[in-house]
Design goal:
The chain is mostly helical and about 190 residues long. Helices cover about 70% and strands about 0% of the residues. Helix 1 packs antiparallel against helix 5, helix 2 crosses helix 4 and helix 3 crosses helix 5.
């Protein structure tokens, strides 16, 4: 792997990390009890957490589309030279416990949501909300799966730069489970 591929993989790993963190925070923030009272303070409280949850989904969808969305994206996973297009797609579907036809539907929902609400706004457009149609688990699982592969590729990078080696070693210890734990802790702490 050359330095250009290394840098691409680093950026893709960061995108996957953002997905894991934001979707874990979103899930934890869904534990906020709904407030029945209609006082102004409670409305502001609910609005703040609803906005925070929405933002977590928006960032996650945006990042997910950067890595799994349009093939023209520089950061699309197919741009990693050492990955096989056909086996990789099958492995992603297997990791998400879905078929390739189901993947196509999840992919379509994410791209539509990104294009028509996150990156641009199509007024009056009726969209499937990924959070409401249970897509987020697939987006999270696919990001975690790819992130593991990306870290393995980074660990295989041959380099003598101690800063690069240290970065990769630290990154390899930041597992998906640890990312999820930290994100949930951040969200839970914010709720106190």
């Amino acid at each position: 792997m050359d330095r250009e591929q290394f840098e691409l993989i680093k950026v893709m790993e960061l995108c996957c990390r953002d997905i894991v963190i934001n979707l874990s925070m979103h899930d934890e923030l869904n534990n906020v009890p709904e407030r029945i009272e209609s006082s102004e303070g409670n409305i502001l409280f609910n609005s703040y957490w609803a906005q925070t949850r929405n933002n977590a989904v928006f960032v996650s969808i945006l990042r997910w589309c950067q890595v799994f969305g349009a093939h023209k994206e520089d950061t699309h996973w197919k741009n990693i030279n050492s990955l096989s297009l056909s086996t990789m797609r099958a492995n992603i579907c297997n990791a998400c416990d879905i078929t390739e036809d189901e993947w196509a539907q999840y992919h379509k929902i994410a791209l539509s949501f990104r294009h028509k609400l996150v990156a641009h706004v199509d007024v009056g457009e009726i969209l499937q909300n990924p959070a409401k149609v249970h897509c987020l688990k697939v987006y999270l699982d696919s990001a975690k799966f790819l992130r593991n592969i990306l870290i393995e590729l980074l660990l295989d990078f041959t380099c003598t730069d101690s800063k690069v080696l240290n970065y990769v070693q630290l990154l390899s210890r930041l597992t998906n489970s640890e990312l999820e734990r930290q994100a949930r802790k951040m969200a839970a702490t914010a709720l106190i």
